[in-house]
Amino acid sequence: MKKKRNINLTGPISSVFAITIGLLFGFIVLLFCNASQAVPGFLTILTGAFTHGLKGVGQVFYYATPIILTGLSVGFAFKTGLFNIGTPGQFIAGAFGAVYVGIVFTSLGSVHWIVAVLVSAVCGAIWGIVPGLLKAFFNVNEVIASIMMNYIGMYAVNWSVKANKVLFNSMRNESKNVAVSAQIPKMGMDKLFPGSSVNGGIIIAILVVLIIYLVLNKTAFGFELRAVGFNREASRYAGIDEKKSIVFSMMIAGMISGLAGGLLYLAGTGKHIEVVDVLASEGFTGISVALLGLSHPIGVLFAGIFIAYLTAGGFYLQLYEFSTEIIDIIVAVIIYFSAFALIVKSFMAKTARRRQAKSERKGGKGE
């Protein structure tokens, strides 16, 4: 039992190691930029989210909501042997679906926001299923197909918003406000975190995390998906339909990313789809969240909150004469080093196996 526990801890330890390296690197960047303010600036990154008490904590959860889901999308695909780099396209497709329903279908009443959220998930699933079909039936690399779908999604949404007078605000070059009935209810979050932007979206995100965890680890369907990810040939020999598993994996991953877009743009915080040729940053941040969380649903949840915490704290760096661009660089470097967690995990797993093999050989000689 003791050996098993040590091996299982390699994942969390490697993530903590990666976070430490990232934070140290960020501190070095601060020293080079402004040595006299580096220490208070670094402390602000670590504690800035608590500057306004519960309001600050609520903002962390608000920033975490979309990246938890995009991270979960990437992590889910990783668990099934696929690399879903198409999260930006799926995210904006879901956002467009939510915004369209939120602006056009104003007669839905109390279920308006529910329908808008569901449509965002469906749009994301449609955008995710295309690389899945290409991978399953034509063996097209899902990374290449997903990247292409990112740009198709971005330009398609830009054109759709701009060409539709009902959706487009020409004065601001962005989509119009969604109806109040389409905004996600606070669900008590405004009382827990007064003054913050957080709403029921964080509750939905946590529920989705728990559902994906149960699907992957407690159902036959999840076992089949993971089996295909581990070894497709062996899965095929065991009677598992690998093509169906690939298609469903990408579809579910796309659905989660699309839902992330819906939750963000229906939050009622003044967020609009801007008609600019830039891929959604929340999608790419999700890749880093998945890497830091080691693709485990619960790990992704905490990784998303952690990165959102650093982001919220980083906003206050301007008080110490650090520009906004430097804040972005520091956060990006910290996120980048999270990818190192996989290398560390692999190294620690190999080291543990070698020690186990040595102990077994010594035990055999002793007998």
From TrEMBL:
Membrane topology, record value: Multi-pass membrane protein
According to the record, the segments passing through the membrane are: 12-32, 60-78, 90-108, 114-134, 197-216, 246-267, 300-320, 326-348
Provide a GO CC annotation, any one.
plasma membrane
**Highest rank taxon of the organism:** Bacteria
List the GO molecular function terms: transmembrane transporter activity
Localization terms from the record = Cell membrane
Keyword list, A-Z: Cell membrane, Membrane, Transmembrane, Transmembrane helix
Task: Please classify the protein's predominant subcellular localization into one broad category.
Answer: membrane
Q: What is this protein called?
A: Nucleoside ABC transporter membrane protein
Q: Which organism is it from?
A: Kineothrix alysoides
